[in-house]
Amino acid sequence: MLREQEPSYASRWAALTSVAGKIGCTPETLRKWAQRAEIDDGCRPGRTSSELEELKALKRENRELKRANEILKTASAFFAQAELDRRLK
């Protein structure tokens, strides 16, 4: 809707204000949605929504793997110490 209305206004902000009032959001919210759509369409540089989702998933996976690695290190040290204690007895 913004793309259709924009040419008939003097500025982009005027178009944002008008369209935002019609759809019931703030002009700033609509501006951010428009920027995201432009990035996703390749009209503006930046990471697309799918790239951001993939990056978020990879960061989550990395965090989980680091946590699992710490647990395994702790368990390994615990069992190594238990083995040493058992040999000393």
Characterization of the model:
This protein has 4 helices and no strands. It is mostly helical. It folds into 2 domains: 46 residues, Orthogonal Bundle (Arc Repressor Mutant, subunit A), CATH 1.10.10; 37 residues.
Question: What would the keywords be for this entry?
Answer:
89 residues, mainly alpha, Arc Repressor Mutant, subunit A, 2 domains, 4 helices, 0% strand, rod-shaped, transposase activity, WH-like_DNA-bd_sf
Question: Outline of this structure?
Answer:
The protein has two domains: 1-46, Winged helix-like DNA-binding domain superfamily/Winged helix DNA-binding domain (Arc Repressor Mutant, subunit A, Orthogonal Bundle), CATH 1.10.10; 53-89. It has four helices and no strands. The chain has helices spanning 2-5, 12-23, 27-41, 49-88.
* CATH-derived architecture of the largest domain: Orthogonal Bundle
Order of helices and strands: HHHH
Q: Biggest sheet, in brief? A: none
Total domain units? 2
The CATH superfamily of the largest domain bears the name: Winged helix-like DNA-binding domain superfamily/Winged helix DNA-binding domain
Overall average pLDDT: 93
Please report the total strand number as a whole number. 0
Please work out how many helical segments DSSP would assign: 4
Q: Helicity, in percent?
A: over 70%
Gap from first CA to last CA:
79 Å
Spatial shape: rod-shaped
Looking at the structure, the CATH topology of the largest domain is: Arc Repressor Mutant, subunit A
CATH class of the largest domain: Mainly Alpha
Which value, in Å, is the CA radius of gyration? 27 Å
Stretches with pLDDT under 50, minimum 5 residues? none
Strand content: under 5%
**Which structural class do you get from the secondary structure elements?**
mainly alpha
